[in-house]
Design brief:
Blueprint (H helix, E strand, L loop, with lengths): L10 H10 L8 H4 L3 H16 L3 E5 L9 E9 L5 E10 L20 H14 L2 E7 L7 E8 L12 E7 L7 H15 L3 E2 L6 E6 L2 E8 L2 E6 L2 H15 L1 E6 L2 E2 L2 E6 L2 E5 L1 H10 L30 H13 L4 H10 L8 H16 L4 E5 L26
Antiparallel strand pairs: 1-6, 2-3, 4-10, 4-11, 5-6, 7-8, 8-9, 9-10, 12-13, 13-14, 14-15
């Protein structure tokens, strides 16, 4: 509370943001099965999978190895932040699949964060509508072409012992799941008259005279924007008929990005993500730093003691790189530290923790897109004089 303020937000938006951090979500089946709300959610998920004929129970064929599964739990909220429902999703452990046996091609595009920021800047400058959709059980709509067998999920009862699930349709977690779903959604949108952007295949556009509608796709999350409200209503009805969607109203939370809109513009931040990052690192109670890195601190390859376990450093840098999507004040320092992923030293890890201490002092800082933006690019450049001790080159 000393470093996060909600005084400039409307009361409904404040309630929404606070509710994101209030009710915890279980991480394992053992934790969830203790609560009736999560048991009901798992029963509904199993019923939906069975009604969709996602699998058939059968004996495991000779020389076939089944993959595992796990439950993932998520609280779905209304626009005001109140709990709409408890969502339990069964996910296949796709990392155990064998290439060439259980899957072939896997690549599927997702919208670039650069595209998201650009479209939000356009939406606020042009005063476009901004809506969000969520597809129900999106991956279950994809058709599975390979023979994939899965161990019976926790909590699911079978008529007899020794049976496994032969997957007939795609399931979350499978290597090819996102590709199959994306292909089906793309065909549907092209049929509706949209065309894919050549620079980002997860951005679909439809223009008619001076009317424009833009659709951004990130797996099963969809953002709709444009100045044609009638077309937005049409595409919502079409997608609901094809796949069953949830209309989440105005855009507020998308792939970890918190969106606050007012007459003056759009504020984009990752407050919840930043707080979770601090919590996982055990630094929620640390003393905040005023700058991300001290000006006299020099990073170099042969610094001091090598880290015995560099995995934690690499994971931390990866999460910080995602945070830079709304925090350009961290970009230089995080990407500088990412140059030492191969053999990180203790000084590199200490510098990373210092960045987290800086984040602690301003977790809600982000990007602001003004509604009076003239949409002209402005760039700034600064460079030192051969200050890098490893390459003896200037850093611009």
């Amino acid at each position: 509370t000393d470093f996060t303020s909600f005084t400039h937000l409307s009361s409904p938006h404040t309630a929404y943001l606070l509710s994101l951090s209030t009710v915890p979500e279980p991480r394992t089946y053992t934790q969830a099965v203790k609560h009736a709300c999560w048991r009901d959610a798992m029963d509904k998920e199993i019923a939906a999978l069975e009604s969709n004929r996602t699998w058939t129970l059968t004996a495991l064929p000779f020389a076939k190895k089944p993959i595992g599964s796990k439950w993932v739990y998520k609280i779905k909220r209304k626009a005001d932040g109140s709990i709409e429902r408890y969502k339990a999703r069964l996910v296949a452990k796709g990392y155990t699949q064998l290439e060439g046996v259980d899957y072939s091609e896997t690549f599927s595009p997702v919208v670039k964060l650069t595209t998201v920021r650009l479209v939000l800047a356009l939406a606020t400058a042009k005063n476009w509508f901004l809506h969000q959709l969520d597809v129900n059980n999106a991956f279950l709509h994809g058709d599975l072409l390979e023979d994939v067998y899965m161990i019976v999920p926790p909590g699911f009862k079978t008529p007899k012992e020794g049976l496994v699930c032969k997957l007939q349709k795609s399931l979350y977690g499978l290597k090819q799941a996102i590709r199959q779903w994306n292909a089906k959604l793309t065909i549907a949108l092209l049929f509706l008259g949209y065309h894919q952007s050549s620079s980002d295949h997860s951005m679909f556009l439809k223009t008619q005279d001076k009317l424009i509608t833009i659709l951004l796709v990130y797996v099963d999350d969809i953002v709709l924007t444009g100045n044609n409200l009638d077309e937005i209503v049409v595409v919502k009805a079409f997608l609901d008929k094809q796949f069953k969607i949830k209309d989440l109203g105005s855009l507020k939370f998308f792939i970890g990005l918190e969106v606050a809109r007012s007459k003056s513009g759009i504020m984009l931040s990752q407050r919840k993500y930043a707080l979770e990052l601090l919590d996982d690192a055990g630094l929620l109670g640390c003393k905040p730093a005023s700058v991300p890195m001290m000006s006299n601190f020099k990073l170099e390859i042969s610094a001091d003691t090598l880290l015995p376990n560099p995995t934690s450093y690499r994971r931390l840098i990866g999460r910080l790189i995602y945070l830079t999507n709304t925090r350009p004040d961290l970009c230089f320092f995080v990407h500088k530290l990412s140059q030492y992923l191969a053999s990180p030293h203790q000084s590199h890890y200490d510098a990373t923790l210092h960045i987290l201490r800086y984040v602690k002092g301003c977790p809600g800082k982000g990007l602001f897109f003004s509604s009076t933006n003239n949409l002209k690019l402005t760039a700034f450049s600064d460079s030192d004089w051969a200050a890098c001790p490893d390459t003896r080159k200037s850093i611009t």
